[in-house]
Amino acid sequence: MRLGTFQWMKSVNKSIILNKIRTDAPISRAQIAKDTKLTPPTVSSVVKELIEQGLVKESVLGESQGGRKPTMLLINNQGFSIIGIDAGPEMIECVLTDLSGKIMQRNSSMLTIPITNDQFLDTLKACIRNVLQASSSNTKDVIGIGVAMHGVVDVETGTSLFAPILGLKNIPIKEELEKEFDLTVKVENDARAMALGESWFGDHGELDSMLAVNIGHGVGAGLVVNGKLYHGAHDIAGEVGHMIIDLHGEICACGNRGCLQTFITGPAIAKRVTQRMSQNHEDFPHINGEKIYEFAERGNEDFLAILMETGRIIGIGLTNLIHIINPQRIVLGGGVTKSEKFILPVILNTIKMCALTPEAKQTEIRITRLGDDATLIGAVSLLLVDLFEPS
């Protein structure tokens, strides 16, 4: 879909009606009018446009309420597609989905550090081209591109202001991709994108507030309040990985000492293992989170102790967030959570011990059900929000 066409399609009434069909399908025109308080002629006119544009389709007849059976409406999920990207810090992953978030194609490219802005953008563009070439879609069927980028993002301009693990600043992602592909592009911090994806596809029901925390090579979070992402005054809301835990701790990629992510990320856990094992004159070359979990699973008490220690530190960090934000639910994602068997009980026990009130102690903590694709689905959701929700 050409750049600008997407906005031409949007209007408040269209978004209201589209979202109503998305959430309550199959639904009749009369029921939409009743529930949205829009007039029946307005609903009929907008639905006609949506059908002509291919976003909505008619379904089998509904149950009669005393007169003629109504024709039911559904979102035409296969009518359009969306490109979702999880950008960095080790690789760029790209998917093509339909409007229901179903993944139809995927492609990935490894990133080599050190890397320049131009090299990063070239890899990003190549990944998008590859996923398009592998599909039967063409760009006129694509709603747009959603990019989940690690680090600090200027959402308005779609610029990556600071990607600390890659060591990059001021990458004009939105500008470059819109120029290259002539498509609408949305860029968001990866953890906030994950939170949005959880809100849309995580089967959480209706929550007033939900915090999603991504723990992998970095640590970030996204807060969804009443269905909307919270960005903060300067677009850095959610940078919980840079919550300082130890003033005298190790230097973080951001330049400060003792940040939370110097303790609980995959590389941080592996580093702790290497340091402790070397003290015991043991050698574990190329250790990573997966191997640490495997050793703990086999009963290695040293590895188990490190995972449980990690769980306690995560629990302390989450307790701080519960005290500051007080969300209804916290969802955890990222590679480190694959060790949930060992770390989750410790996380829950730490919160139970440290939270201020009985209610805070009961804050629900859940591991994402979206698995490794949580951030990618979040990137796709950036476009769905624009399509289905009123501005």
What does this molecule look like?
The protein is of the alpha/beta class and 391 residues long. It folds into 3 domains: 8-75, Orthogonal Bundle (Arc Repressor Mutant, subunit A); 81-196 and 375-388, Nucleotidyltransferase, domain 5; 205-368, Nucleotidyltransferase, domain 5 (2-Layer Sandwich). 42% of the residues lie in helices and 22% in strands. It has 14 helices and 16 strands. The protein has helices at residues 5-9, 12-24, 29-36, 40-53, 117-133, 173-181, 190-201, 261-264, 266-279, 289-297, 301-325, 340-354, 358-361, 374-388; strands at residues 27-28, 56-61, 71-75, 81-87, 91-98, 103-110, 142-149, 152-154, 159-163, 168-171, 185-189, 209-215, 219-225, 228-230, 329-333, 364-367. A 5-stranded mixed β-sheet has the order 6-5-4-7-11, sandwiched between helices. Strands 14-13-12-15-16 form a 5-stranded mixed β-sheet, with helices on one face. A hairpin with a 3-residue loop joins strand 12 (209-215) and strand 13 (219-225).
